[in-house]
Write a structure and sequence with these properties.
Elements: E1 2-7, H1 15-23, E2 27-32, E3 48-49, E4 52-54, H2 57-71, E5 80-82, H3 84-94, E6 98-102, H4 107-119, E7 123-126, H5 137-144, E8 152-154, E9 164-165, E10 170-172, E11 194-199, H6 209-219, E12 225-231, H7 238-250, E13 257-261, H8 268-273, E14 277-280, H9 290-296, E15 301-304, E16 319-322, H10 327-337, H11 341-358, H12 361-377
Parallel strand pairs: 1-2, 1-6, 2-3, 6-7, 7-8, 8-10, 11-12, 11-14, 12-13, 14-15, 15-16
Antiparallel strand pairs: 4-5, 9-10
Helix pairs in contact: 1-12, 3-4, 6-7, 6-10, 9-11
Length: 378
């Protein structure tokens, strides 16, 4: 089967989906609105960029104001429209048996649905919206108008074990990783230093870099730690980067905190392998693949209750879910996770076992093909 994904960009969380589908004998293609080579891994599939035409300046001004006011940041992809002829030609050249299209609100997504409908190509919506929740009003309207397909997939769910929502036509398909790791080669807190890993773009304030530094400042007298913060800085806000560095200096953490930028996807494994605890206190994260990557390497994780990956974390067993923007709760869970090496090791091994069961290529393929069957048979 030829499977085409149409996305804003080729995120690294697609890498192991691509690997699994290709190993099962499928051909996989990508159309995107933009490429960001510093943050993407094209070893298995290099995406094709669909040409875009900018909107009139007056309309861009209105949209920028709206997004700044009500969304909190400007998404450039809403300031242009895809070139319909180029998009149509790409679809005709690839001749996909199935198209998986990200969300419904992106201009590229909306017009891709229309083109697929005209060409009679089965399509699935790919969202990161919780499986169990009723659909948003825009999605319901577009489904009513028969513009977007009824079947969707999502890696986000509220309750572990749920795989389908018959009311919305949504199917759970886990985001996965498949880094080679035997589960027994992990050594925790060598020299009694807990190695903490944080992965989040230095441009994104909602990743809560400062909150983590604040929490670690509060525990530094009780916990011997080394923090590594990893993030792409190609488009980082210089003022925000300066603020992060200022807090490190203010809290006297310079000898305990290391900042690393633009680490290639293929080199992340070494960082996870050399970490004892993964912490990402981000707010309103649709789904973060980095906690799943950490669990792949038997690293327990701490994430917030507004992270779409929270269903993968079982409190006290393979990590903790903390309240968003709650420094005190994060401090408490940091100390609980690191109270001794045995606790770290037990939680880490539990994280690895959970990953092998719930975020494996086999499960992803089973769930994905169930949705594909519904989309192509209806």
């Amino acid at each position: 089967m030829k499977i085409l994904f149409i996305l804003p960009r080729y995120h690294t969380n697609q890498y192991f989906w691509t690997k699994t589908l290709k190993e099962k004998g499928h051909e996989v293609f990508y159309l995107v609105a933009e490429k960001v080579p510093a943050l993407e891994n094209y070893a298995l599939a290099e995406p094709t960029v669909v040409g875009h035409k900018p909107l009139p300046n007056w309309l861009q001004t209105v949209l920028r104001w709206y997004m700044n006011t009500f969304v909190g940041k400007v998404r450039d992809q809403f300031l242009s429209l895809p070139e319909r002829q180029h998009l149509r030609q790409c679809l005709k050249d690839i001749k996909p048996d199935l198209v998986v299209i990200r969300e419904v609100s992106y201009p590229l997504s909306f017009f891709s649905f229309l083109e697929c409908k005209k060409l009679g190509i089965p399509a699935i919506r790919y969202t990161q919206y919780p499986l169990e929740l009723p659909e948003r009003w825009l999605t319901r309207l577009l489904k009513f108008l028969n513009i977007v397909p009824k079947i969707s997939i999502t890696p986000t769910r509220i309750k572990r074990g749920n795989r389908q929502n018959p009311d919305t036509g949504a199917y759970y398909v886990p985001l996965i990783t498949d880094f080679p790791f035997d589960g027994a080669s992990k050594h925790y807190a060598p020299y009694d230093v807990v190695r903490i890993l944080f992965v989040g773009k230095f441009v994104s304030v909602r990743k809560n870099h400062l909150l983590l530094l604040d929490a670690l400042n509060q525990v530094k007298s009780r916990l011997n730690f080394k923090l590594t913060m990893v993030g792409g800085d190609g488009n980082a806000d210089p003022k925000y980067m300066a603020l992060i560095k200022k807090h490190i200096e203010l809290y006297s953490l310079a000898d305990r905190v290391e900042l690393q930028a633009n680490v290639p996807h293929g080199e992340m494994g070494k960082l996870y392998l050399e970490s004892d605890l993964f912490v990402l206190p981000s707010a309103n994260e649709a789904f973060s693949i980095s906690p799943i990557e950490a669990m792949n390497y038997a690293v327990p994780v701490i994430i917030t209750d507004t992270n779409g990956a929270k269903h993968a974390v079982i409190d006290g067993e393979n990590g903790y879910v903390v309240k968003t923007n709650d420094t005190a709760d994060l401090v408490e869970k940091l100390l609980l996770s690191t109270k001794d090496t045995d606790t770290l090791a037990k939680m880490g091994q539990n994280a690895f076992l959970y990953h092998q069961k719930e975020h494996s290529p086999e499960l992803m393929y089973e769930c994905f093909m169930r949705a594909v069957y519904q989309a192509t048979e209806n």
